[in-house]
Every structure is written in structure tokens, then in C-alpha cells.
Amino acid sequence: MRLLFLGDIMGRAGRAAVATTLPRLKTDWRLDFVVVNGENATSGHGLSQSHAETMLAAGVDCLTLGDHAFDQRDMLQFIDREPRIVRPMNYAKTAPGRGFQLFEARGGRKVLVMQALGQVFMKRPFSDPFSAVEGILRSHPLGGLASAIIVDIHCEATSEKMAVGHFCDGRASLVVGTHTHVPTGDAQILPGGTAFMTDAGMCGDYNSVIGMEKTEPLRRFITGMPKDRFTPAAGEATLSGVFVETDDKTGKALRVAPIRIGGRLQQAGPDGAL
Fold this sequence. Notes:
6-stranded mixed β-sheet; globular; 6 helices; Purple Acid Phosphatase, chain A, domain 2; single chain; alpha/beta
């Protein structure tokens, strides 16, 4: 199975890049399933219903969220009506929506997508992500009903993301980190057969401070005083993420490659330079 995971969509620039580029990638790369983190798609703060619908119409099979899952109030109702959106499973127990979902991919095969929030350096004390992930992996063994399993671990600390990757090794097809908006250079297949990348990066304008227009973040770092709101940078976006090809029988990874398309970062795809 050929899987694509794209990192956090950041504002209008990120949405436009996904909407215009993804349909071609699905054809050219013969993708079976696409997951995109959308928690910053709406002005950098959450995901609105209309922007979710735009991304799904562009060919995204599953949208994951994060700690900004419900910054947009209409998501509180929409997520219960739209099964293609997955929120963190260790969010508040009363939160609407679902933290994992079994999807049908191209050819009728099943893909399980789950998301958990980390605990280290996060602003809110979320519950243990390891026990949350463990329960789903036990009830959905890789290679059984699920031909592939994708784990989006939404964390601040790289060490915590790496720990989750090793914790899931051999039991998931891909464990990929989101949240920090900076793509890491450690795409690899772990000893047990799980593809791993510490952070997928963002789909946004990299002429920025993690996706935000530079002026206000610089002012706050230099002076310690806020003046204006953060606004997403609006230049040409780079699509950042990871491509994984899995074994159809075991669900384990055969190949993993970082993705960089357009914008300011070096361009690369599953077969090298684009």
C-alpha cells in the first residue's frame, strides 16, 4: 500500500498548496491513502467546517487535528457528522468526535488512523498517550482487519515522539510526529518494521516563524512584549510530509521517504528529486 502523510496545514497558503497539488500527487504516485494534519488550517488556529470540506474535496482521506482541535467552534458539531476527521484520543473524555477510525482505502483494504497528544512541554495536562495507543493497537493488530496503521503523535518534545515510535514498532505501519512545524531529517524504518519520522513539518510558507508572519514573533522574542496578533505567512507554501510503502500481507513498511514540494525547501519525493 502507498501512503502519504502531510504535516500541519498552516493557514491559507497551506490550504491552497494542498488543494492544488494533492490531486496530481494521488495520480502520479498511485497513492492508496492520504492523511493530513489540519489543526492549523484556519488562520493558524484550528480547523473550520468549510476548510475541512475543501481539504476533503481535494482528495484528503483523513484529517487529523491536535491541541487546537476545537479552536473553531463549528468543529464541535461538525466532527460528529464527519467520520473522516480524527481528533486526539487522549483529549478530554467529553470531547466530541473520535480519536481513531478504520477507513477503507483504494482497493477495499482497511487503514486505521489514530492520533494522540504528548504530555511533555504541552500547555495542558493531557492523559497518558502510551496507554491510549496501546489499547487500540491491542484490539486492532497490524495485518489483521487493518492492512495499515498510521499513528499521528502530536507532541512538543522530540524525545516523546521517538519513544512513541519505538513503543509502536512492529505494531504500526507509520508513526509520525506533528505539532512543531519543522520537518526532521530522520525518516527511517525501525527494527520491527514501523516507518518513523519525528516531525512531518508543515504545509505552509517557510519564510516565516513556524508558519506565522515574522514581524510579531520577532517583536515578542526581542522585546518580550506583544503588540499584534499572530497571522499566518501568506507566501508560497511547501508541502512537507512523509511517503510510506507497506507490505500488503504484514502491513509493515518497505520504504519511507520525506516529502518536500514547492516553496523554499529542497524539493524531494518518494523517488528523490522532483
